[in-house]
Write a structure and sequence with these properties.
The chain has three domains: about 70 residues, Nuclear Transport Factor 2, Chain: A, CATH 3.10.450; about 90 residues, Roll (Nuclear Transport Factor 2, Chain: A); about 375 residues, Beta-galactosidase, Chain A, domain 5. The protein is built from six helices and 31 strands. Strands 9, 10, 11, 12, 13, 14, 23, 26, 29 and 30 form a ten-stranded antiparallel sheet that branches. Strands 15-16-17-18-19-31-28-27-24-25 form a ten-stranded antiparallel sheet. The protein is globular, with a radius of gyration of 25 Å. The protein starts with 5 loop residues before the first helix and ends in a 20-residue tail after the last strand.
């Protein structure tokens, strides 16, 4: 699938601008993406989806532009919808806060008058039914104080001070000061020059493929040892895989992280409202990073750039946004025959398609793996810097729901919840899903109990590690299937009456299954920013549609409940979360029997 080009993006924005009813409107384009092909194949018209914001009125419009003719194919205004936060408006918010007399007075009361190294982080405001939640596009802003421009500001939070900014006007609509707490003084620097003597004895590790990699890349199409697929980068979802097949047989039409939410479990004024939808409110693709050889990716690497909107109607190119390579993964299968001594072993390797997005203080690495036995895996790597709060340095326990990580510095307990959308085409169209539990029969027998999920109401399921629960997506016509195996079965801990549970209803279940339907693509609703709850999967599944032998979409929630550790400070070692899709009746026997034995001394 050919990726969106810079010239196409610019032309699409120009077409939308020319057709906008407010001729002199202050327009912004937070999202521009290639219109995706349906399950039946590419559309006859190559088109771009353009999201247009008229800043003064807040009018948001969805525009479809024919890229061949630059003609507007369709136009739909979306009343009351709020787009992801604009980078430009975040800068507006920062400038407004620093100039606000109320905020300046609170800073001065804390003894802070030199604003040279102040760091202000605008946050999505969420929605809580408060008077300030009146439909304006807002940001909640928290403050940190760096020692220098290169310092780690999260080591020095200015606790108890919060500002709310109207993003359309740049007006600070509210400043709340809940009382001063000493700003922690200890350094949180983590650069090589800041951490003392570096560890010795780490010798070079060279990964070479003198004959080149085993995969071929044609634009955004990949072919690797029986696998074929395409990939792209979209502003909201980030990295997306398309038309995944193995040995000519289809498995998935589309696979992506469609939404994620990070709810914080603290109750104090600077933290209780932090519930960021890092896809819907920010955009994982909008936050994608350039990757570096030998740092983010190691080996015989191929890269792909990402073309994204710059919000003003132009294009920006993120170089090396997607990394592609293959890596050794140990033993794939082995057996030593006790009678003959024959030792047969084959080594595993996997194809890696990865990207990294920086959303505020956290980094998220999205690593899709394809294996030689037909397995597909998504591994999310979480790293970066934790959210922090200040407290009395004499305390040895956090004053809220969290952990002391340095003198006078604590980090709140929180979750990272991801929702993968998997458009299934296992062995062709017409799929069903069954839940499989491994149970005892009351004696010594071990039974796989399979339950067919027939309607959407049946298919709102929770993981059960005690039963080794998994879900098998299968084609009733051929019997071929793939099993979704949870590896990080975490769901939302907030109570059902909380605003975050209403807004992130998808995260209350490990699995949802829906029939494929136009417009049903984001599990918390198309527009998560300042949403009021109920949209997305809870609304769609209320219809209780049948899901047997149809084009099904499988939604899987997984993640991490992060209890901070001192070892996570000042920068967090990678935490892993994800799932696997393993062939289950897709092949008649081990599909990796045909691998050649390793060269050398294996015999």
């Amino acid at each position: 699938m050919k990726a969106l080009e810079s010239a196409e993006l610019v032309a699409a924005c120009a077409a939308a601008r020319a057709a906008h009813p407010v001729a002199d409107g202050d327009l912004r384009f937070p999202v521009v993406a290639l219109a995706e092909p349906g399950r039946s194949g590419p559309s006859a018209v190559r088109a771009a989806e353009v999201l247009v914001l008229e800043r003064a009125s807040g009018l948001l419009s969805e525009v479809l532009v024919d890229l061949a003719t630059s003609a507007v194919v369709s136009w739909r205004d979306v009343p009351d919808a709020i787009p992801p936060l604009l980078f430009e408006e975040c800068m507006v918010a920062i400038t407004a806060v620093i100039a606000d007399e109320r905020w300046l007075g609170s800073m001065a009361a804390r003894g802070i008058t030199d604003l040279t190294n102040v760091q202000i982080d605008p946050w999505p405001p969420g929605y809580f039914g408060l008077p300030v939640d009146d439909g304006r596009r807002l940001a909640r802003c928290v403050t940190y104080l760096r020692d220098s421009p290169t310092d780690n500001g999260y080591a020095h939070p200015v606790e108890g001070l919060l500002a709310v900014v109207n993003l359309a006007t740049g007006e600070v609509v509210e400043v709340a000061d809940h009382g001063a707490v000493p700003v922690p003084a200890a350094s949180g620097r983590y650069g090589a020059a800041d951490v003392g003597p570096l560890r010795e004895g780490l010798r070079p590790l060279a990964i070479t493929q003198p004959e080149g990699p085993s995969f071929s890349l044609d634009g955004n199409d990949i072919s690797w040892l029986g696998w074929r697929l395409s990939f792209g980068v979209r502003p909201i979802e980030g990295l997306v895989l398309y038309d995944i097949s193995y040995q000519g047989r289809p498995i998935l039409h589309r696979a992506a992280i469609e939404e994620m939410v990070v709810p914080y479990g603290a109750s104090s004024p600077n933290h209780w409202w932090k519930n960021a939808f890092d896809a819907g409110e920010w955009g994982l693709g909008r936050m994608i990073q350039s990757l570096s050889l030998g740092c983010d990716c190691l080996g015989e690497i191929r890269y792909a750039d990402a073309v994204l909107p710059d919000e003003a109607g132009g294009a920006r190119v993120v170089a090396n946004a997607v990394c592609l390579h293959e890596e050794d993964y140990g033993v794939l299968w082995k057996h030593v025959d006790a009678w003959t001594g024959l030792d047969e072993v084959r080594r595993s390797r996997r194809m890696v398609i990865s990207s990294v997005s920086t959303v505020g203080n956290y980094e998220y690495g999205f690593f899709w793996y394809l294996y030689l036995d037909g397995t597909i895996q998504l591994e999310v790597k979480l790293t970066g810097i934790m959210q922090t709060g200040a407290c009395d340095p004499a305390l040895t326990e956090a004053p809220d729901n969290g952990v002391i990580i340095a003198p006078g510095l604590w980090a709140p307990n929180h979750q990272h919840l991801f929702c993968a959308r998997l458009d299934a085409t296992v062995d062709g169209p017409g799929n069903s899903v069954e839940e499989i539990d491994v149970v005892g029969d009351g004696g010594t027998g071990i039974v796989a109990r399979a339950t067919l999920l027939t309607r959407e109401s049946d298919a709102q399921r929770m993981a059960d590690p005690a039963a080794s629960r998994r879900w098998r997506i299968f084609n009733p016509a051929t019997g071929a299937g793939y099993a979704l195996v949870p590896q990080s079965p975490v769901t939302l801990l907030a109570g059902p009456d909380t605003w975050i549970a209403k807004r992130a209803g998808f995260a209350t279940r490990s699995l949802w299954v829906t029939p494929d339907a136009p417009g049903e693509r984001r599990p918390a609703g198309e527009y998560a920013s300042q949403s009021r709850g109920g949209a997305g999967l809870p609304a769609w599944t209320a219809a209780d549609r049948p899901i047997v032998d149809t084009d099904v979409v499988v939604w899987h929630t997984f993640g991490v409940s992060h209890l901070p550790r001192p070892e996570d400070w000042p920068v967090m070692p990678v935490e892993y979360a994800g799932f696997m899709l393993k062939p289950s009746g897709f092949f008649p026997r081990n599909p990796a029997l045909d691998l050649p034995p390793p060269a050398g001394h294996c015999s």
